Structures are given as C-alpha cells and as structure tokens.
Amino acid sequence: VEKVEEQLAGLRIARRCVPSEEPAYLLDIDTSAAAQPGSGRFVAVSCSNQSIRVYDRETLRFLREYSGHAGTLSGVRFAHACDSVVFSACGEGAVKCWDVRSAAQKPVQVFSGYPSNVFISFDVSCSDLIVCAGTEKVEKDTFLVFWDARGVTDCAGTTKEPLGVYSESHNDDITKICFHPVEPNLVVSGSTDGLVNVFDINKDNEDDALISTCNSDSSVSSLGWSGQDYKQVYCMTHDEGFCWWDMAQLDTEEPITLLHVVDARESVCAENHGLHYLVGGLYHEKAGKLFLVGGTSTGNIHLISCNTDGLSLVGTLCGGHSATVRSFCWSPTDESLLTGGEDAQLLLWKPGAVERSLTKKASLKISSSVQKRVRVHNTSLKSRKK
C-alpha cells in the first residue's frame, strides 16, 4: 500500500490539451477501453457550454465536439465493450449515444424519457445492456428510468422508449447513479434526500429490488463501489462529508458503516493548502484500497487515503490547474490520472512524467485569461474598494 501511495503522490503532468477557443468548465471525464492491445483510446469530456469534446487518450489531441444539447449535461460514459460509443444525459429528458469516430452531429441513438423528465445523473451497466438515468424532482415525483441499450450502434438515429421506472425509493433529486463494476444487475443511486439505495434490477418490482438503504444525512454529490469484489459502497456529500458502507455485512449482526466523516475539510489537515472540496473516489484494485480526490480553489489536487479509522492525506499534485478541479478519471492500466477543471484545462498525470514545456507556456497564457472571466466577482469587489 505504501508503494501505491508513493506512486500516486509521484504523479506528474505528462500532457495538457491545447486550450479550446471557447473555454468552458470540464464537468465530467471518461475514457474508452482499448478494443485491441495497441489500439488508440479516446477521452470524452462534458463541458459547461453543453458540449461533449473528444480527445486522443495518449496525446490529448482534440478530435471533435458534439454540441447542441438542450440543458446541462450530466456526465459522459463510454460503452464497456465498444470503444467508440459514448453516452451523455441532458436536461432535455434524453440520454444520447454518439459514435466518436463520426463527426456527424446526430446521435446514433436517443433514449427518450417521459415528458416531465429532467435527467441530472445516469450510468450504463457493465454489460452495456441497461442504461439508467435519474431525474430532478418534479412536483412530488422523482424517477430512476431504465432502457434496454442493446443494439445501440446498428440502429442509427432511432429513439428508444423506457423499459420502466422506479419511483418510490427517493423523494428528491437523484444526483448520482453508479452500476456495479462486475455485476450488471446491481446499481446504486444517491439523492439530495441523503439516501443511498442499492438495487438488484433483476427483481420483478421496485420493492423487491431495493436491497439496502443507507443514510448519508446530507445531499449526495458523488458515489461509487469499492473493496474486494466491490462489496462496499461510498459516497460524498455536497457539504464535503464522506460515508463508507460494507454491503457484505447486510445479513450479519455487524454494523455496515465503515466510516462516516461529517466534514472531510476538518479531518484532513492538508498543511497550508487546506482542503476545500471533494471530487470523488477511486478504488485502487491492485492495492485493494480506496482513495479520495479533493482539492483547493487554486487548483491543487489532494489525494486522500481511506481507512476505517479515518482519512489521511497521501500527497498533493500542484502546478497543474489554476482553479477548482471538477472531474477526474483514473486509469488502472497505466496508473495515470486525467483531471479537468474550471480553468478549462484537461491534464494527463503519469507516475514520474516530465512535461514538455512548449505546451505549458501556451496553455498558461490562456488559463489566466479564463481565470479573469471565471472570477469576475473578485475583480468587481476590488474596483468598488477603490
């Protein structure tokens, strides 16, 4: 474990993408699995300007952009078995599926919701068979909507209707959905109602499908699976809390809560840098260990180790971002980390990498101009003082 912690702390910038002409916050990142050994991989990024940008995974060279989404994008996910298919969900009540090899601005498949649906979270099962999206609360209703995702690539432009919904288990916005990494029938959902629900969607109805309900006591911002055979569930909250549960203890007398930290900012003393927020978790399979990614408003990235006795700082990645980091994607194959932030930068970190300075100079000029735009309220305060 110590070796893994050293490796994480030793991550260095290997690549920066060339800044886009229209800077935007980078809200979510996903990478495709390589179809064959040696074949190229893709990175998809959802942006605050309602577009999806696609890059080459190794070089971070910009390939194409899909724009024209109505409403905020709530994430991007590549299909697990097909490295060129990427899904996105948006506020207009649809999950769209794109073929990243094609520059056509038309999705190859649209999964349409019910008329009142505004999707703010979604995921794709590890078998690529099911897509599930979570809605904002409308009047008294909040839904998990499910679709059959089979045959996505061979029916271009068609629209699919939902298989059905779960409507009883949450009573507020469903902010996060995460399918189990190896069991396609298991899915966990989190909501602003504080509940984290684990479902077995093979069951006939919602009541039977609900395996476990855990309460985070706060609005859920991020969640995931961890532990041996991924039997643990963890979540972060919008007020920077952290909860960690062991589903293997459900049928025993043992408590299922492994750790509950009310405010990670107070429990992780990151020296002078401080910890301002949590972004999400990464489960390191080789080490069998859960780490959290957090950071500061000035762009420092903190890597935090989780143990049942608390959280501890492993290391801080500095010199990359100049504003809040909003998204990351961990790659176990080459133990690298992709990060995206409010400074419009996409960075690739690798163990012991050395960055070529040419791209750095070019991007720093741009990021400072982005910062001026991002931090408008600061400058207006200064002018008032004068």
TrEMBL record:
InterPro entries: WD40/YVTN_repeat-like_dom_sf (IPR015943), WD40_repeat_dom_sf (IPR036322), WD40_rpt (IPR001680), WDR89 (IPR039328). WD repeats lie at residues 66-108, 167-209, 318-350. Coiled coil: none annotated. The keyword Repeat applies. It comes from the Eukaryota. SUPFAM superfamilies: WD40 repeat-like. This is WD repeat-containing protein 89. The keyword Acyltransferase does not apply. Keywords: Repeat, WD repeat.
